[in-house]
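REVIEWER CHECKLIST
Item 1: Sequence provided? yes
Item 2: Single chain? yes
Item 3: Sequence as submitted:
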Amino acid sequence: MGCTLMMSCFETLRLPAANSIVPLLISQEEYATGISFSASLSKITELVGTGIAGVIIALLGMPAAIFLDALSFMVSAILIYMMRVKEGIRINDIKSSFRNHFVFGINYALKHQDLLLLAVMASLANMVLVPFNALQSAFVSNYYHGNVSFLSIMEMAVSSDSIIGGLLYPKIRTLIKPRHSLLMLFPTTAFYYVALLASGRIDHLYWLLISIALISLITGIVVGIASCNVSVLLMLKTKQEYLSRISGLFNAVSQMFNPILSLLIGVAGRYLDVSTIFLFSAIIIMLIAIIAYNDKKMESLND
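Item 4: Structure as written out by the authors:
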């Protein structure tokens, strides 16, 4: 437990640093391609790692698997250290306190309406799949009367299709405005909940699994596109020297409501069945989509 807590704490330091180093490696014109490639490659290696984990544990045992995991972190650290970038850190920035960094990050975000709007949208985007993630096991068991294979199909489809969405993002960006590629996540997610409920009326197991895979395919692609879109917009809307501070604050804000929503859904689960919660979630998500689509402030994300 102590090791997990320590790793999670260090991970929060890595995310802002990873975001702020991208502009030092690629030009602004290459943001979309670079970020989409990085996100897709990360997802691919995650899926491959998950797939071979069982083989490694079966052949070499748990200690060997943990050692290989630790070794991969060491190799990553060495490769990152070998990268040659001109960081251009200001001396007064180095000497300033953590408190000054944190306060300045908040003040900078408050002065830039685009960043506040993007943080709100990212937070909402992270929240739309919380009901599904929290209740998917209960939903599959009670509504489909299915087993772990149903869960595997859903998770594999959404995860693998996030890779496709990431790879498609550079092309999508040239065809669809950033505002629209972000907003389409909400009606797509609402469709996902309703389609999952509608699929329950399919009697044939084979067609049921195909239906689940297809609707998860669509959702996963849109999730991948929206995720890349948020990352690119964050970099475009933030000056390079402030990116690490804003990224840390942005990640905290975009994730902070997820545990609260998970708790509320857990409480609601005591009084409502999963299908009802999914239906209410779809309605609320569509209302958010309508409000956001008609909000003129969203046009600023296209600038």
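Item 5: Key structural point noted by reviewer: Confidence is low (pLDDT under 50) at residues 89-95.
Item 6: Recommendation: ____
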